[in-house]
Amino acid sequence: DLIEGLGVAGWGVGGIEAEAAMLGQPMSMVLPGVVGFKLTGKLRNGVTATDLVLTVTQMLRKHGVVGKFVEFYGKGMGELSLADTATIANMSPEYGATMGFFPVDHVTLLYLKLTGTSDETVSMVESYLRANKMFVDYSEPEQDRAYSSYLLLDLAEVEPCISGPKRPHDRVALKDMKADWHPCLDNKVGFKGFAVPKQEQDKVAKFSFHGQPAELKHGSVVIAAITSCTNTSNPSVMLGAGLVAKKACELGLEVKRWIKTSLAPGSGVVTKYLHQSGLQKYLNQQGFHLVGYGCTTCIGNSGDLDESVANAISEND
């Protein structure tokens, strides 16, 4: 959950467990293994928190962290914003851990100040955490840590990437996207395969979209959504999306009309800063209008495709 990026330990439980805790009953659990994930270095220009979280997810899935806690540490944490660490923490269901935890550091205190917490309260929080040896100070020498197992990532090695075609931990470097896609057509049906016969791989489905000629082929994009609680609560990637839309408008580029587009921000705050920055109008021009707040396309709540697009797919599949 997002709170773990703020130094708050917490994880989801079932309804019965939650009710029992509310009624004052004790909760028993097997002491989980704790994976220490050390971060060093700094992200390169052009690399986003989304690229980082997909890299971390792939590493943790490969390592195996189901039923475990993951604690991040190392001076690389100090180079990330609170929104970045919250992004990683919020992906714990995708990498399979019970919790992905970031301890409190100066970045956390800065976030408290930026969100209106009084200086007195921030000072008290820092003093309390330092007194209890729970505050991370990057100016001090790193101490040896004991974990069940260890992972290491140099942030400078993270590169722009995507995931798929079906699972979030199947990371693919952006530069390798095309090379990765074509074998997926040949591979047997699975997470990285569709088993499309050779003679069908270049097939083009022509159809009419509101009176205009259109065509689809294997790999065509038909849904483009700026959504998910992981992405749309992070100012850097949301403002980045707005700037990309602005540049596209300036260059005369536009999204194909038959692609279903949507924008579902993580909160009303996102809408506010997109409007105040003047970027929302460019997103609107590209078809990314506000559709609401909350879970949408990620869980199948995208709504139906245009009938002509849906028919073109079903008739040629």
TrEMBL record:
GO MF terms, alphabetically ordered: iron-sulfur cluster binding; metal ion binding
Keyword list, A-Z: Iron, Iron-sulfur, Metal-binding
InterPro entries, per database record: Acnase/IPM_dHydase_lsu_aba_1/3, Acoase/IPM_deHydtase_lsu_aba, Aconitase/IRP2, Aconitase_4Fe-4S_BS, Aconitase_4Fe-4S_dom
Pfam family, one: Aconitase
Superkingdom: Eukaryota
Ranges for domain Aconitase/3-isopropylmalate dehydratase large subunit alpha/beta/alpha: 3-316
Keyword Transcription: no
Protein's name in the database: Putative aconitase
Organism of provenance: Dimocarpus longan
